[in-house]
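Table S2 (continued). Query chain:
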Amino acid sequence: MNIENLFRQTYNKLKSLHLEQPHLEASWLIEKYAHVGALTRIKFPQKQIDESVMSHITKALERRARGEPLAYIFNEKEFFGRKFFVNRHVLIPRPETELLVEWAIEWAHKNLYKQPINILDLGAGSGCIGLTLLKELSFARLTALDKSSEALIVAKQNAKNLELENSCEFVHMDAALAANLLKRYDLVVANPPYISPDDINIEENVKMYEPTEALFCGEDGMQEMTAWLKAMPNVLTQRSAVCFEIGYNQGARAINLFNNLNIFSRAYLLKDYAKHDRVICGEIL
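Corresponding output:
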């Protein structure tokens, strides 16, 4: 089969699934398995494709038809301009989380003068937050903590892929027990589970494929954040900051949690591109 016919066949199958971007997904599938980019595909439409490639694409389409996200099919997701290995033991990195990373980078440059700075990534998952900070802040060291041993395997693989193994350590521990760490940190970042189990806005494929324990938390989604924050007085340095991703409707409650801890000089919210509260930051200055 030539590349033009393969693309048309792949596109038609994806379109029949009523996906939002069948044309784009067809391009990604062909680039992934046939190693043919869009420009080459258009320039050489008669290029012949091996049967093995067609077999890989067929299997990927079968998984996609069941609702499995492309990130898990590819075992890969881009975050902050870098590719991260992912599987079903970790959340798929999302663009909204880049807001947290952007803030942390800017805050570190403005407020932390000693080197190296120590970063703690709670519930690290794939490691996309902490490892991105390591790449962007060359003077940093990272402790990545997660209660899932499977998630830590993924994070370690990403550290290896990004050549960051010598700048980070991995701890198998519930983030609520972070006070037991015998270390102080200048920057604590986290994307805790914050979704209520009865949230009707969560897509079915997210519920089916992404790890439940990394998504959902109690009746109002605030329990994990509350537990994790209790450890902060024991892990923060005298000049430090905490930055958590939150749900779109949790801003006021998150601010109260941070203020009630009575350790932050100030706490404030950051909005995402949809103008929803998305990140809460607390500073000790």
